[in-house]
Q: What sequence folds into this?
């Protein structure tokens, strides 16, 4: 039942223009940006580039899409009807969220593969890069559910998502000069990717991931409602 829900959600995800653009357009955009900036790039700079671009992918393809999808499904009474089936609440979260997580992961793999093909060195710590990718998907997904809790409509997500997006962009800029930028939303996962690729201490990035997993998880549990917001 959960698998059927996930497959159905994947079809819906690819049908909507805005989410379809995220699925196909974001990795193309990231690859194009990398192509034009790769000339003369020293090997030790690739980790920072990959980490930064990964953050953008997570913000656009996982955080924003999950915010939109969970808000839309709740307001259309889909989630309320699903709760009358044999699916548990966790089954519903997994069924609706799994396609988004899958898309974000595939986009990341495609992007990393492209970077390796055009000259990026192999990561020094593959396991740390993998942990960063999984953490980024988890933080983005929980952040989307938490933001959907305060969104009364899909249109409203353009406003309710702004604080997290601004914090992520701010962290993306700050982390270039100060490692404590890794404590801002999603940026910690990007830092794990960066450190896994080029070396360095992953402590701040790991702390940022744990912090936002706890915060977003707590907000989602406390405030997410299954029926439409008034």
A:
């Amino acid at each position: 039942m959960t698998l059927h829900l996930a497959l159905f959600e994947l079809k819906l995800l690819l049908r909507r223009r805005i989410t379809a653009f995220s699925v196909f357009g974001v990795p193309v955009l990231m690859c194009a940006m990398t192509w034009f900036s790769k000339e003369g790039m020293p090997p030790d700079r690739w980790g920072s580039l990959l980490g930064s671009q990964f953050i953008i992918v997570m913000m656009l393809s996982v955080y924003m899409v999950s915010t939109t999808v969970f808000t839309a499904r709740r307001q259309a009474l889909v989630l309320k009807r699903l709760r009358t089936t044999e699916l548990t609440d966790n089954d519903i979260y997994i069924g609706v969220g799994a396609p988004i997580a899958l898309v974000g992961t595939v986009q990341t793999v495609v992007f990393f593969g492209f970077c390796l093909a055009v000259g990026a060195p192999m990561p020094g710590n593959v396991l740390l890069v993998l942990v960063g990718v999984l953490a980024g998907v988890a933080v983005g997904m929980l952040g989307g559910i938490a933001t959907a809790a305060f969104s009364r409509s899909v249109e409203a997500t353009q406003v309710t998502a702004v604080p997290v997006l601004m914090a992520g962009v701010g962290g993306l800029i700050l982390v270039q000069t100060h490692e404590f930028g890794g404590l801002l939303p999603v940026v910690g996962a990007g830092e794990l990717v960066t450190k896994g690729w080029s070396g360095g201490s992953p402590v701040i990035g790991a702390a940022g991931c744990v912090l936002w997993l706890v915060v977003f998880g707590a907000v989602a549990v406390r405030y997410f409602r299954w029926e439409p917001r008034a």
Summary: The two ends are 30 Å apart (CA to CA). The mean pLDDT is 89. The first helix runs from residue 2 to 15.
